[in-house]
Amino acid sequence: MKKILETKNLILREFVVEDAAALQKILSDKDVMRFSIWGPLDIKGTTIFLEKTAIESYKKNGYGKWAVIHKDTNTLIGNCGLLDEDIGSNEIKTELGYRLAKKFWGKGLGTEAARAVRDYAFTILNLDEIVSCIDKENIPSIRVAEKNGMTFWKEGSLFGKPCQIYRITKNEWERCKK
User: Fold this and answer.
1) What does the pLDDT read at residue 178?
2) What is the pLDDT of residues 69-105, one digit of tens each?
3) How far apart are CA 122 and CA 103, in angstroms?
């Protein structure tokens, strides 16, 4: 379990397969997964996500979706991280994505996690830009993206599902930090 980031309230670390049961409790919630292309996941789907998406991305790219741990309780409360995704027409971009258990919505923790990952993308990974592909009806996720300096860039798709693509470049990030 490699720790990646620490914020005031959160620790972001690499997932391990043993996280499947705790993560599945979050990813099986229909409200949490309302805008997911996969819908609610059972334990098999959660394990596939961990093995084929998160852990494989760590090995291939040095980043992926990370476990979000609440410091006060040392509890897994969701995931946040970066994945290389096809945003339509074979255009591959590094996407910042986040998903928290419903109990933790509206507390600023999604913004806190996403901000830390954004900063990591530009300072540690030295990426030129990151995007977030968000369903147009997912207003809370749009707010998180905007609070982190992202602006609407264009329409796109993720796994064939239409989305709005928000983006921030490294130059924009550097300007908004000043």
Assistant:
1) 64
2) 999 999 999 999 999 999 988 999 999 999 999 999 9
3) 30
Architecture in CATH for domain 3-177 = 3-Layer(aba) Sandwich (3.40)
Single-letter residue type at 116: A
Record the tokens describing residue 81, joined without a space.
């991280």
Enumerate the domain spans of the chain: 3-177
Burial of 97 (0-12, 13-18, 19+ CB in 10 A): buried
